[in-house]
């Protein structure tokens, strides 16, 4: 019955693509043996498993996902749920690359499930869960009390969050230490003589807003610098809004001489606003910014940058989801990456 069902599933995969029968013919083995070798069944010898898997890779064999789901209840799909209107400046491509690297040698496939600002962020999660479209889910833009994480925990869906929650519930995550980033940025600015600092923070509803703000304010106290409030905009505002607000701030008598920016795209707007006010970056004011690719120094050499590795984030998130699917304890699938030192391309 197992062999008959396997053959039927394979034949349903469509004409022209390699099937288990193709592999059986090329290796001189039975269809059932080939099927078990592809699954790393222990009763199949190591050399046979290696030979079958090598031939499968060479001819581009892929199991029929519809058949796999019928037999096992699995989709072999990981879904990355993204608000693509918000995730810019290479985040999307880098995190997809990181996930794809990890799942490349597994049976799993990646699908990206986008949603827009007009949607409830829970809508795509409900769809994935109710339709059984994925075995595991990765989400970003995490909130302290995130309804998506709670929903999936209640339904036993393996998932990982890019960012932490604050719900008192254990789940896999990968996060960047934004507290350490903001604190180090303040210390660096103070070290080059900047004393009046402004923070362009993440939106208040996201968990890493408080991490960033706490790092910023704690370090201000440590170095004896003062804050110039800049809380009428966040990194989620448009480039033009940030530029306009920055220019207004920089035309005041009590203006900042240093900025900490939580996103590279927002930094472009801050610099434009500084220059709109007739001031010079690196002379009148310095900016420390996060970036996910080496772009900011191409824009302005005077910028101070801290690198955040989204490719690493994608890889860690994929490992976390696969680990949970494989039976690992969710609490063992949590990771935190530290910021690099502040990098200066050139100081006059």
TrEMBL record:
Record keywords: DNA-binding, Transcription, Transcription regulation
Parts of the chain that traverse the membrane: none
Database matches in Gene3D superfamilies: 3.40.50.2300, lambda repressor-like DNA-binding domains
PROSITE patterns: HTH_LACI_2
Pfam family, one: Peripla_BP_1
Domain HTH lacI-type positions: 18-72
Entry superkingdom: Bacteria
Keyword field contains RNA-binding: no
Protein name: LacI family transcriptional regulator
SUPFAM superfamilies xref list: lambda repressor-like DNA-binding domains, Periplasmic binding protein-like I
Protein species of origin: Mesorhizobium wenxiniae
UniProt xrefs under PANTHER family: ALANINE RACEMASE, LACI-RELATED TRANSCRIPTIONAL REPRESSOR
GO molecular function, one term: DNA-binding transcription factor activity
SMART domains xref list: HTH_LACI
């Amino acid at each position: 019955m197992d062999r008959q069902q396997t053959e039927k599933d394979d034949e349903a995969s469509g004409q022209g693509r390699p099937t288990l029968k193709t592999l059986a013919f090329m290796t001189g083995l039975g269809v059932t043996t080939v099927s078990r070798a592809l699954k790393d069944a222990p009763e199949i010898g190591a050399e046979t498993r290696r030979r079958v898997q090598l031939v499968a890779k060479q001819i581009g064999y892929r199991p029929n996902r519809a058949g796999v789901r019928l037999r096992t209840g699995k989709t072999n799909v990981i879904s990355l749920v993204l608000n693509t209107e918000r995730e810019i400046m290479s985040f999307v491509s880098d995190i997809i690359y990181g996930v794809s690297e990890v799942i490349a040698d597994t049976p799993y496939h990646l699908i990206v499930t986008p949603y827009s600002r007009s949607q409830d962020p829970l809508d795509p999660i409900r769809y994935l869960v109710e339709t059984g479209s994925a075995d595991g889910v990765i989400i970003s833009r995490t909130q302290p009390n995130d309804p998506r994480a709670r929903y999936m925990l209640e339904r036993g869906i393996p998932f990982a969050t890019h960012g932490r929650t604050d719900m008192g519930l254990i789940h896999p995550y990968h996060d960047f230490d934004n507290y350490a980033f903001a604190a180090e940025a303040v210390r660096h600015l103070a070290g080059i003589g900047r004393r009046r600092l402004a923070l362009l923070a993440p939106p208040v509803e996201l968990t890493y807003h408080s991490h960033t703000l706490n790092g910023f304010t704690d370090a201000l106290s440590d170095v004896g610098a003062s804050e110039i409030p800049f809380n009428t905009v966040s990194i989620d505002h448009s480039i033009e809004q940030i530029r306009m607000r920055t220019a207004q701030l920089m035309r005041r008598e009590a203006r900042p001489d240093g900025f900490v920016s939580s996103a590279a795209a927002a930094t472009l707007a801050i610099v434009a606003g500084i220059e709109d006010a007739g001031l010079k970056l690196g002379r009148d004011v310095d900016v420390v910014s996060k970036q996910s690719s080496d772009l900011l120094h191409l824009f302005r050499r005077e910028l101070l940058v801290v690198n955040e590795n989204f490719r690493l984030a994608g890889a860690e998130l994929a490992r976390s989801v696969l680990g949970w699917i494989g039976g690992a304890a969710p609490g063992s699938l949590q990771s935190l990456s530290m910021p690099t030192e502040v990098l200066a391309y050139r100081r006059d």
